[in-house]
């Protein structure tokens, strides 16, 4: 079998199909180009499955923004106004830094 | 702080194993993993590396005392995973940290796949995890760390079985083949 027949969801269900298209393209490239010893097959271009990736990313980051505005609206209505959690993207950036810092130790 | 380590050898080549890593989810044994998203991916053709940032969304039952600490509205937890595969060196390293609930608990995990030094047909898997309770109270921190450690071990054991099921699906039942060969050898003696 070439690929796991079951598909895991994207954080937003409307992006799942776009991620699946990108994954299918990436998995094929990974197996047949990246892991191949055939240097002719090698893609010198750094952009892999660019069209599929851009379509999926548009959907994903829009969903993350929607998710953030939903969370901040919920927060406005709550009494814990001072305990506003950071947006998901900010938290991700912080985690990126922490992982990099952790690598050094 | 709690430290956990695991080591395992998969009877699949490095190429097979890393191919399966991208397709590990969903599997029946890792039902807590609900969503996977790729936030960023960079390919370096010259160095033969791919660096990937993935966001993993999990949902699992947690004890009510912990739910109280983390906050009722947070039912899904999210984890950032930064991975790098280097095909010249044949290593695949994945590092991760939780993005949500960090005020209560932090779980750093590092996983490395590389060809087994004894057999090129096999791949070693090494995992280490640091679990740190992050509240201001030592007693609560140790309680959180103990719970998290047992949950992590439970998920890791099941995750290994789930990963093996994906390897079998993609590349056939290697353990079974190895056993059959052994039986054949025995019967020919």
UniProtKB/TrEMBL annotation, chain A:
InterPro entries with a match to the protein in the record: MDM35_apoptosis
Keyword terms, alphabetized: Disulfide bond
GO BP: any one term: phospholipid translocation
A cellular-component GO term for this protein: mitochondrial intermembrane space
Single annotated GO MF: phosphatidic acid transfer activity
Region: Disordered, residue numbers: 70-89
Transmembrane parts of this sequence: none
Family, similarity comment: Belongs to the TRIAP1/MDM35 family.
Name of the molecule in the record: Uncharacterized protein
Lineage, uppermost ranks: Eukaryota, Fungi, Dikarya, Ascomycota, Saccharomycotina
Automatic annotation (TrEMBL), chain B:
Gene Ontology, cellular component aspect: mitochondrial intermembrane space
Pfam hit, one: PRELI
Organism superkingdom: Eukaryota
InterPro entries according to UniProt: PRELI/MSF1_dom, Slowmo/Ups
Residue ranges of domain PRELI/MSF1 in the record: 1-175
Stored PANTHER family: MSF1/PX19 RELATED (PTHR11158)
Protein name per Swiss-Prot or TrEMBL: MSF1-domain-containing protein
Origin species: Hanseniaspora valbyensis NRRL Y-1626
């Amino acid at each position: 079998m070439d690929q796991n027949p079951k598909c895991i969801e994207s954080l937003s269900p409307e992006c799942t199909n776009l991620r699946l298209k990108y994954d299918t393209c990436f998995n094929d490239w990974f197996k047949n180009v990246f892991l191949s010893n055939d240097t002719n097959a090698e893609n010198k271009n750094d952009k892999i499955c660019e069209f599929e990736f851009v379509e999926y990313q548009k959907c994903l980051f829009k969903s993350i923004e929607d998710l953030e505005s939903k969370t901040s609206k919920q927060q406005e209505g709550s009494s814990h106004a001072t305990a506003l959690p950071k947006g998901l993207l900010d938290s991700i950036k912080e985690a990126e830094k922490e992982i990099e810092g952790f690598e050094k130790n | 702080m709690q430290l956990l380590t695991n080591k395992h050898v998969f009877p699949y080549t490095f190429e097979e194993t890393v191919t399966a890593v991208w397709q590990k989810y969903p599997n029946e044994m890792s039902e807590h993993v609900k969503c996977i998203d790729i936030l960023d991916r960079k390919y370096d053709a010259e160095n033969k590396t791919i660096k990937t940032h993935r966001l993993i969304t999990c949902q699992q039952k947690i004890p009510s005392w912990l739910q109280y600490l983390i906050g009722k509205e947070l039912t899904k937890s999210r984890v950032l995973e930064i991975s790098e595969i280097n095909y010249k060196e044949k290593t695949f390293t994945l590092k991760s940290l939780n993005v949500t609930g960090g005020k209560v608990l932090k779980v750093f995990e590092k996983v490395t796949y590389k060809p087994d030094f004894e057999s090129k047909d096999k791949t070693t898997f090494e995992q280490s995890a640091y679990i740190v309770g992050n509240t201001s109270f030592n007693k609560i921190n140790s309680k959180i760390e103990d719970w998290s450690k047992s949950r992590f071990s439970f998920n890791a054991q099941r995750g290994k079985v789930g990963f093996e099921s994906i390897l079998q699906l993609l590349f056939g039942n290697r353990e079974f083949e190895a056993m059959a060969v052994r039986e054949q050898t025995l019967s020919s003696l």
